[in-house]
Design the sequence.
């Protein structure tokens, strides 16, 4: 499948690399490819620059958000939550129309430091904001409840754990669930319409505090029933 | 131990019954014991009136919030979140002083229907509101992330799952953890200071949507790591 990932951070890289490994044709979109390739210093989280990752993953093409969106049938929003609407604007409504958009971002607001708060919650969600802005895009929320490496390799925990999907389009959700299964997810709970993304986005404040208590982000929630 | 439960709803009854079964001296507090005993109809959730439950648990004494608070060394806040500050006011600061208060309530706001939103979140929590109002009470937040029957009998799921504790007083937290273990909880994560209750209270929007998807509240989250 032609899949494009929007965002060159650790989440975008991790998902793009795994999709390519699984045999998909993968592009990764950024605002300005030349600027992305010109960076040589680690980012503010200490992650190596994109070029370091790209050298190890030459099969993933770096391109603009617009070109990335145009060439794919399925898109992954791996931009930061605060940038998502800008990123989609750059991708362009014409390039997005009719596509499935797997939204893995969270609306984190770091303006008051750590831990971040949520810029939208309880009565709305980032996923719904995106859906309202692009009614012809099939938005599916998933994977926003666990760290990047576990998004694409949950089996590394050595025990089954849960991911959730929320979306208004049944076909798009089925497509995303197939993708999740190919990553190794064996417990996918369909929460229902996109409104239910309010629930998974609001898990983040707990996720952050569990990470603080455990000293690692290498964990995931399992719904025991 | 002398333990009092504030609140005669299903959560209060379930916890009080279990504590009594475990050998504690248990009182259950209500606004007006005569009024509580006079009710003969099921509540708005369809639960049987208090008297039905009380007939099966005669060892648990029904009394006022103030008397319940005065006689116990450990209190359980099982009132609804919206009523909690009123309930504690009726219990009385003098009766609460120096006590451990296990707060299992969530700040649910049903004013816009179902699903409820949270009346406080992200930058504050019900637990912190209580702590600020009663600085001499040792507030510990726990058990607010699962349904009443599983609060006191998590083993009925047939698989280990997680509960969280948040609180500023280490001794009070240790006391609560002992109680949790006596209920059968074998995976207790200490999230740290009471501020971390923001995380567990914000789990409720997801909990409600998982309940909707599964059609039952008989589930719990496990932190797989």
Sequence:
């Amino acid at each position: 499948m032609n899949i494009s990932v929007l965002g060159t951070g650790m989440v975008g890289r991790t998902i793009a690399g795994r999709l390519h490994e699984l045999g998909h044709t993968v592009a990764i979109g950024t605002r300005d490819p030349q600027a992305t390739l010109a960076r040589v210093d680690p980012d503010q989280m200490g992650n190596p620059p994109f070029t370091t990752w790209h050298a190890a993953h030459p099969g993933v093409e770096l391109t603009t958000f617009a070109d990335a969106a145009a060439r794919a049938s399925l898109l992954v929003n791996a931009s930061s939550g605060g940038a998502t609407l800008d990123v989609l604007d750059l991708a362009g409504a014409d390039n997005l129309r009719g596509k499935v958009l797997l939204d893995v971002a969270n609306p984190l607001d770091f303006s008051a430091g750590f831990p971040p708060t949520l810029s939208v919650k309880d009565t709305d969600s980032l996923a719904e904001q995106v859906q309202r802005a692009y009614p012809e895009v099939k938005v599916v929320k998933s994977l926003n409840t666990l760290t990047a490496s576990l998004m694409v390799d949950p089996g590394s925990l050595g025990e089954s754990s849960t991911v959730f999907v929320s979306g208004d389009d049944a076909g798009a959700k089925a497509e995303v669930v197939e993708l999740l299964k190919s990553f190794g997810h064996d417990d996918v709970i369909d929460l229902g319409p996109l409104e239910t993304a309010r629930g998974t986005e609001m898990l983040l404040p707990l996720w952050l505090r569990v990470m603080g208590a455990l000293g690692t982000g290498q964990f995931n929630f399992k719904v025991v029933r």
